[in-house]
Amino acid sequence: MFDITENKSYDIAAHGFGKKIEQHGFEILSCVSARLGKKIFGNDPDITEVKPDFDVLADWIEKNPSGKVAENEALLRKYGYDDAIIHHRSILFTSDWKADALNMPNHSLLHHAGSHSGYKMPGVTRLTSMVKDGSSVCVGPVDAKNYQRKVYYWAESGRFKPETEGSIIVPTEDCYIQGFLLKKHFAFKCTVTDWQSFNVTKPTYLIEFTTNEVNAAEAGRAWLQQFEDGLIEFVDRVPKEYKWDGYAEGFSA
C-alpha cells in the first residue's frame, strides 16, 4: 500500500488540487470551487536546501518585540521553523484554508485569503478548505530552480510593472494587461518591462516569479510579515467550537 508519510511525490498534491497546468517550464496546481471541508495532501520530495544564513526569526523579534511573531516564537520553533526551507513552489490562498501537519498535533495554521507561502515545512501537510467555493493555486518551475517571488493585489484596475524581463506571472482571476487576456491560474511570460495597464474583472492577486535567484532572508521576512498582518495565524487543532465569518459552526480537524 502507498504510504503518504513514507513515499514523497509531487503527484500527491497535484491530484488533490484537481487540475495541473504546465506552461513556460512552470507547473500550476489549480483548485477552484472547493467544497467546504475539501482536503489536499502534500509531501513533496526533498529539494536543494535553501535557508537564510542567519536566524531571520530572532532578527525579526529583536526589531518587533511586541508583535504577533514574537508572541508565537515558541510555536514557530516547536513546529519546524528552524528546519523549514524555501520551497521552489509558492502557494497562494484566495479563500481561507487550514493547514495541518504530522508534527503539529495540537495546532493548525489558518491561512486567510491573500496569504501565501514559499516555505516547505517538515512532514506531510493537509490543507482543508474552510469555506464553500474555496480556491488556491500552487506554482513552481518544473526544474525545481528557486526563483525570487512577488505577490501583488488589485482591488480594482490599475497598472503593473514586472520586476524582471522574462518573469512568469500567474493571476488568480481573469484579467487584462494592455487589453491582452490573462486567464485565471495560467502562466504568462513578461516580455515588456515598462508600466502597463492592468484591468481586473474582480479583485485579483498575481504571483510573479522573477528571473532572479531567491533571497532566503527576503522570503522569510515576507512570510513573517503575514503573521504580523493576521493573514496567517495559529489556531487550536481541534477547537471545541469553531466559529468564523463564513465557516461552519463546530467544524473540526
Tally of domains: 2
Which residues form runs of ≥5 with pLDDT under 50? 242-253
Q: What is the distance, rounded to the nearest whole angstrom, between the alpha carbons of the first and last residues?
A: 25 Å
Number of strands: 18
Number of helices: 5
Biggest sheet, in brief?
5 strands, antiparallel
Mean pLDDT: 87
What series of H and E elements makes up the topology? HEEEHHHEEEEEEEEEEEEEEHE
Shape: globular
User: Order of strands across the biggest sheet?
Assistant: 1-2-9-4-7
Gyration radius (Cα, Å) is: 18 Å
Strand content: 35-45%
Q: Structural class, judged by helices and strands?
A: alpha+beta
Helix content: 10-25%
Describe this structure in words.
With 253 residues, the protein is an alpha+beta fold. The chain folds into two domains: 10-142 and 215-236, no CATH class; 147-212, Sandwich (Jelly Rolls). The protein contains five helices and 18 strands. A hairpin with a 2-residue loop joins strand 13 and strand 14.
